[in-house]
Structure formats: structure tokens, C-alpha cells
């Protein structure tokens, strides 16, 4: 028979195990990016620009997928969302797929809401962050609303050091 204390302990252990797995996965992703990003011949800004044929860029990120580097840009056009994969060696659009469900759709909706209040494009936020933190390379940019203002969170990488900085978009 489980008491309330046993149940609380069981829940606490489950949460700890789950969060440990997430932390380990995040660490592996970061280590993969450290190794793979230097091979990218185009900047995050160039990826944002390349995706414009598929709508307004609402976020972008370099990510490691099964040991391979990808540059993914979410776009919004006429109420529809797409994930645009930009070929990081050439800067050309490799493919574009509609975003229609799940976590990706929820993220795209939140991002387009933040961009609706923005007066600056994401490229401006990325350029400012890289200027302010010389030697760092932008690896992602994600808009969000913060106290009613549009802010871009820019993730930067220099060697093995990661930094995340907010940049105002209004």
C-alpha cells in the first residue's frame, strides 16, 4: 500500500529522471553544434534572407539532427507556416514543408504573435548581437513577447562557449 509520502517520492524521482534525460540530451546537442557549426559557410542572417520566398522569417536555428548540421527557418505567409531548410554550404533553400500540427505549430503561432509587434526584422537583432559580442556566431534567433514588447533571443557560439542575449525588436 502506498502512502502519500511514497507517492510524492515516486513523483519526485520521475521528475528528476526526466529532467536529467533532457539535460543530457541538451548537452549532446550543444556538443554536436560545437563540432558542426564551423562547417557552415553561410551565416544565420543569410539563412533568414534565403527563406524570404516562403514568407516572413519568424525564427531560425542551426541544429544537429542525427549527427548532421541543419539550418531551419520558420516562416509565416498569409496565415500559414512553413519550416524552410536552408542548405548551409550554399545558402539555397533545400526544402520547405508546411507546419500544421503539434509543438512546431504552437511555437510558430507564438513566434508570429511576437513578430506582429516587432518593428525590426530578426536579421537586425542577429547583427546587433554579433556586433556587441565580437567573435561570437549566431546559431539561433527566436522572438518572444516580454512585458508586452517584442524581443529576439539570440543564441551565440564562440568555440565551446554558448551565450544567449535578448535584443529588442520594437
Draw up the topology in text.
Layout: H1 4-36, H2 44-50, E1 56-65, E2 68-77, E3 80-86, E4 93-99, H3 102-116, H4 122-132, E5 137-146, E6 149-158, E7 161-168
Antiparallel strand pairs: 1-2, 1-5, 2-3, 3-4, 5-6, 6-7
Helix pairs in contact: 2-4
Write a concise keyword list for the protein shown above.
170 residues, alpha+beta, seven-stranded antiparallel sheet, 4 helices, globular
Write a structural description:
By secondary structure, the chain is α+β, with helices and mostly antiparallel strands. The chain has one domain (35-168). 39% of the residues lie in helices and 36% in strands. The chain has helices at residues 4-36, 44-50, 102-116, 122-132; strands at residues 56-65, 68-77, 80-86, 93-99, 137-146, 149-158, 161-168. The chain has a 7-stranded antiparallel sheet with strand order 4-3-2-1-5-6-7, sandwiched between helices. A hairpin with a 2-residue loop joins β2 (68-77) and β3 (80-86). Mean pLDDT is 87; it is low at 5-22.
The percent range for strand residues is: 35-45%
List low-pLDDT spans. 5-22
Sum up the overall morphology in one term: globular
Distance between the termini: 58 Å
Structural class by sheet pairing and helices: alpha+beta
Number of domains: 1
Number of helical segments? Answer: 4
- Helix/strand order, N-terminal first: HHEEEEHHEEE
Average the pLDDT over all residues and give the rounded result. 87
- The largest sheet has its strands arranged as 4-3-2-1-5-6-7
Report the major sheet: 7 strands, antiparallel
* Range of helix content: 25-40%
Question: Cα-atom Rg, whole angstroms?
Answer: 18 Å
Beta-strand segment tally: 7
Amino acid at each position: 500500500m502506498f502512502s502519500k509520502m511514497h507517492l510524492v517520492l515516486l513523483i519526485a524521482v520521475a521528475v528528476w529522471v526526466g529532467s536529467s534525460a533532457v539535460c543530457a540530451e541538451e548537452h549532446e546537442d550543444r556538443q554536436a553544434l560545437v563540432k558542426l557549426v564551423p562547417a557552415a559557410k553561410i551565416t544565420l542572417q543569410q539563412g533568414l534572407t534565403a527563406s524570404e520566398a516562403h514568407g516572413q522569417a519568424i525564427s531560425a536555428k542551426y541544429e544537429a539532427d542525427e549527427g548532421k548540421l541543419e539550418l531551419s527557418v520558420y516562416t509565416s505567409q498569409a496565415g500559414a507556416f512553413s519550416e524552410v531548410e536552408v542548405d548551409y554550404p550554399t545558402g539555397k533553400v533545400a526544402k520547405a514543408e508546411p507546419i500544421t500540427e503539434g509543438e512546431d505549430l504552437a511555437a510558430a503561432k507564438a513566434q508570429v504573435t511576437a513578430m506582429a509587434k516587432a518593428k525590426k526584422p530578426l536579421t537586425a537583432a542577429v547583427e546587433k548581437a554579433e556586433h556587441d559580442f565580437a567573435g561570437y556566431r549566431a546559431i539561433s534567433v527566436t522572438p518572444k513577447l516580454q512585458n508586452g514588447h517584442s524581443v529576439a533571443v539570440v543564441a551565440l557560439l564562440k568555440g565551446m562557449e554558448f551565450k544567449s542575449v535578448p535584443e529588442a525588436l520594437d
